[in-house]
Amino acid sequence: MNSPQWVLSTFQLVVALLGAAGASLGALFYFRRVRMDRPAVGRFNGRDVLILFTLLAILPAFYLLVPRWALESLLVITYMSALSIGFTPLLRPVALWLGIGLLIGADLWLGQHALGTVWGWQVFWTENSLIVMLAAISVANLYVQGGMQLRHVAWFAAGLAIYDSIFTIGFPITNLLVRDFVGYPLFPAMGMRISFNEAIVGLGDLLVYAAFTIAAYKAYGKRALQIAVTLILIFGAAMPTLSGLLINYIDARLDVIIPAQTWFGPAAIVCYFWMRRHYGPERTMKEYLASTDAVRREPPAPPTIPAEPAPEAVKPVSA
Question: Which of 136, 239, 125 is nearest to 192 (CA)?
Answer without folding.
Answer: 125
